[in-house]
Amino acid sequence: MPLNFEVFPSVPESFKLSDKTAITAFIWGTIFVITPFPQLIICSSSTFYLLASAYISPLCGIFAMLFILLKNNGKEALTVSKLKFRECWKILCFTLGIILCSGIVNLIWKICLDFFAISYSKEQYLLTLAKTCSATEFLMLSVLVTLIVPVAEELLFRRILFAGLLQFGNKTAWLTTAGVFAAVHLFLAGFPGLFVIGLGFQWLCCRYKNLAASILSHGLLNGFAVLAALLSRGV
Questions:
Q1: What does DSSP assign to residue 78?
Q2: Distance from first CA to last CA of the chain, Å, rounded?
């Protein structure tokens, strides 16, 4: 049975970007937001250096993408507005649902990986780092993944990449954006769950016609991961 996209909210007209704007913003966003991730995984330098690099890159990416969007399409292109308390509550509940769904999908996926004897890392690098770093480094990491990363990634994927792919069809935009989002995290064990999470963030963004909705959900989801890491530290 083909996937029915009628249940997905329609894409607001304000979300559409010109090819030039979408491509340029995506290139600069990729350079600063995605490219540093492999370095975080393979770099053997100090934790402080890793965190410093992780701060600088996404912040530069945010400023670059915002500059391109504002220059070419004005402030309306940001599609960001204040969320009401009731909306925030619904987004929180939806985020909990995303976590549950992605967890179930990942559990089934890991069973399949184990069955076929495919090796994989059980945790993402940053989560492992959060369990072993110092208190100061943990605080730095918490701010990074709950505030900076959600803004950078939602701008890049839900706002720019998605808008650039709309010309190829609604299904292509939804599935490709979620797929790229999952792939760039370089986490085999969590790929299907991240795909579900990507679809969930996009749904919120289009449902509320507001990028702030997916940024909030992304921050909450990462915040729960940080809380889990904090509890594992015995605090």
A1: G
A2: 48
Q: What is the length of the chain?
A: 235
CA dist 149 and 59 (Å) reads 9
Q: Around 28, how many Cα atoms within 13 Å sit in the side-chain half-sphere? A: 18
- The string of pLDDT tens digits covering residues 125-141 is 778 888 888 888 899 88
- Residue 160: count other Cβ atoms within 10 Å of its Cβ: 27
Burial state string for 133-150 with b = 16 or more CB within 10 A and e = fewer than 16: beeebbebbbebbbebbb
Q: What H or E segment, with its residue span, contains residue 6?
A: none
Residue 68 three-state SS = helix
Q: What is d(CA 20, CA 33) in angstroms, rounded to the nearest whole number?
A: 19
Q: In the structure encoding, which two tokens stand for residue 218, read together?
A: 């992304």
Contact 31, 62 (CB under 8 A): no
Q: Residue holding tokens 């619904």? A: 90
Gap between the Cα atoms of 189 and 186, Å rounded: 9
Q: Are 79 and 159 in contact (CB under 8 A)?
A: yes
Q: For tokens 């100061």, what's the residue?
A: 136
Q: Which pLDDT tens digit goes with each residue over 40-81?
A: 555 555 677 777 777 888 999 999 999 999 998 888 888 899
Give the Cα separation of 114 and 36 in Å (integer). 30
